[in-house]
Amino acid sequence: MADEQLESTRLALREAMAQGERAAELARLLAAAEARLAEAQDATAELRGLQERLEEAEERLQKVQAAEEKLRKDLAEQRYQAEVAKWKLSSVQVARWSRLGDAIRTGKSNPVRLARGLRGAAKPAKRPAAPKRQPIPQRATGKPVPGASFQATTSTRTVGGASVKLKPFRVPTGPNTRPHLTVAVVAEPHAEALLRYEWRQSTGFTPRDFARVLAAEVPHLLLVESVITGPWAEELAGAGEGLRALLAWCAERGIRTVFWHTGGEVAAFSAAASLFEHIVTALPRSVGEWGAALASCEPEPGRRTPSLGLLPFAVQPRVHNPLPLAGDRFDRVLTLEELLPAHLSYPDVLTSYRWPKAVDCPPGTDPWRMAELAACGTPIAASPLAAPAQPAEPLPLGATPDTGAEARRAHAALRQAYASGTMSQKVDDLLGVVGLPSARATLNISVIMIDRGDLDHTLAQVVPQKGVIQLVLLSDAEDALKRARDAMPTGVEVVVRPGDPELTTGTMLNRALDLCQGDLVAVMDAQDVYGEHYLTDLARAFLFTTADIVGKAAYYAHLRDVAATVLRQPSAEYSYLPEVAGATLLARRAVLRGIGFADVSEGWDEVLMRQCRTDGVKVFSADRFGYVRMRDRDRWLLGSAQLVDYGPPEPHALA
């Protein structure tokens, strides 16, 4: 019995010792964990202190940079004022009265010197040119800021092993379409180029500094693309804390949030996208996938299921336009791979779009890519954009396209690319969905026409035009008002005034101009022929130029006496020029009223163009199509233009 008790006691002691050892081990592990926790807390506190000091340093740096920028501006202004003072002094010194005074003062004791000095002072002297304000030098930065620089950098292309040098396309900066809106955007360069002119755009913020950057100008909207590079790519891939913090910051301030899917698998972005208020996709085929993804996941507490819509890529007129590069186009038809090698940035892509004679796009090319090419005026081989009614035959590589036919195809494709919807129109739809105002400037047109005795022909030129809100008609026909109202589309205001034979053409145009209410005013000549797309083609130039007056210096003309169709100044397309034809005038109403029409009947357009040059008003010559100048005979025109055909002009001019 005693042995059993002794054995039991031994077992109990052994078990107690084991438990004690385990307890000691646990105590040791607990102490180690507490030590690590303390170290982590110390490290966190230290990191928090470092972050606060970093934020303070960044704030001080911003203040220093702002002070530096102000000093730079002040220095530039002082230099400019010093140049102005020097110019004024030089202007006074070369003035005739000053030179006469100098001659009299230096020659008062010497008649010969006086006579020589007076002769020299009487001669006209060239006045010095006034100084111009120079751009303020920018502070050099160590690394590029995303979105701050968006210009082409590559000036050479390689085709068939040979290098070709070209002048890069200069990407314009501002103005924007909706200056009343500020939008914070996370996007790749392509999407940024499409959006940057639609509003005041904030870019370049990161998950670490968004609160500080966006607080400088709190946005109305946050738009995040499905990016796969940059500081936000990892946040979008896993719905990270930085993204959640950004969306929470927006929610506190009532900022709308939109996720824009432009590429990649839906599943890869569904978790992040579900945190936004709205989801839009650029890929119509992915709408079903997004619907299924949203239906399969429950929204987080306090969140509603995002709305789903479309925001496809579209033409951005500021960068996708027919403004040419310096020099002629490369005289070859290139494949898409030759045109757009993988290493090009998007600003360099915009340069390549304008480079070749034509591009051979393979089947399956993205429609947006073909639309961008077409909008830049580049013919597309075998493109449905170029010939919607009948597919064009592909051009062989190395061939030179027929100039007239290719120009008409390219112009029709450009028109169709814009007709499919610009980015401004797509953004209008987006803003309507999210509940933000989409108001922007319009391009409504008032048309002035002087009836020359054939009212039916006069009305036939203006009735098919789009974008017209008002017709101001000068006609002596008794039923002109009724006939014009019956002919014009519903909603177009018709104003008819009788002509006055005692008034010059310029005076009548001035009186008609006072009646105009459209944003733009067109002057059309009733004796000429205008195609149905004439005004829409012409008004398009206001979307991508800074001109106040648009018209045609390149145009077709038809001479009835010899039945000849000629083309005047074909090289004058898409360029700023000193003058355009008066019968093709389309101008901003306020600018045209400020200039006015001269009180003359012949050459009123030449006087107007001279005044534009004097006042510094920019004049832009658009395409050659949509207008035909009709004359019985015109020897000057026949001698100064190139012969196109003996026959009617419509097949050539009304593309």
Automatic annotation (TrEMBL):
Residues 119-151 are annotated as: Disordered. GO terms for molecular function: glycosyltransferase activity. InterPro entries: Nucleotide-diphossugar_trans. Residues 131-140 have a biased composition (Low complexity). Residues 23-81 form a coiled coil. Keywords: Coiled coil, Glycosyltransferase, Transferase. SUPFAM superfamilies: Nucleotide-diphospho-sugar transferases. Its EC number is 2.4.-.-. It comes from the Bacteria. This is Glycosyltransferase. It comes from Streptosporangium jomthongense. The lineage of its organism: Bacteria, Bacillati, Actinomycetota, Actinomycetes, Streptosporangiales.
